Automatic annotation (TrEMBL):
UniProt keyword Membrane present: yes
Alphabetized UniProt keyword annotations: Glycoprotein, GPI-anchor, Lipoprotein, Membrane, Signal
Stored InterPro entries: X8, X8_dom_prot
The keyword DNA-binding appears for this protein: no
PANTHER family: BETA-1,3 GLUCANASE, CARBOHYDRATE-BINDING X8 DOMAIN SUPERFAMILY PROTEIN
Stated name of the protein: X8 domain
Coiled coil region boundaries: none
Membrane topology per record: Lipid-anchor; GPI-anchor
């Protein structure tokens, strides 16, 4: 019983300690939320998401020669387009649904020259 209580206290201590440290790191970076495509989404759904989002917002960034064209795959381009739409619509959770194929993440998905748009 004593071992269980010590383990539980240690786990609680680690949780409380890490919360404070992770919060400091998150605030130092670009903290916020971004909309990305679920990795398990079918290609047809990804293309529909791109078509929908790009009918509402400017998607030049994912076209050939754009900063987010590479890697040349649907999930990457769909994630950028979905995030552009999500940010433009005010970052409401329902603007990232895309019929269940969107995820809201708190880690900035930007890479190399492709900066995922973020509005506070």
């Amino acid at each position: 019983m004593a071992k269980t209580q010590i383990c539980l206290c240690f786990i609680i201590f680690l949780y409380l300690w890490s919360e404070g440290n992770f919060m400091k790191v998150a605030k130092a970076d670009r903290s916020g939320d971004w909309c990305v495509a679920k990795p398990s989404t079918a290609n047809e759904r990804l293309q529909e998401n791109i078509n929908f989002a790009c009918s509402k917002i400017d998607c030049q960034i994912i076209l050939e020669g754009g900063a987010c064209y590479l890697p040349d795959n649907l999930i990457s381009r769909a994630s950028v387009a979905m995030n552009l739409y999500y940010q433009a619509q005010g970052r409401h959770f329902w603007n990232c649904n895309f019929e269940g194929s969107g995820l809201i993440g708190i880690t900035d998905p930007s890479y190399e020259g492709c900066i995922y748009q973020f509005r506070k």
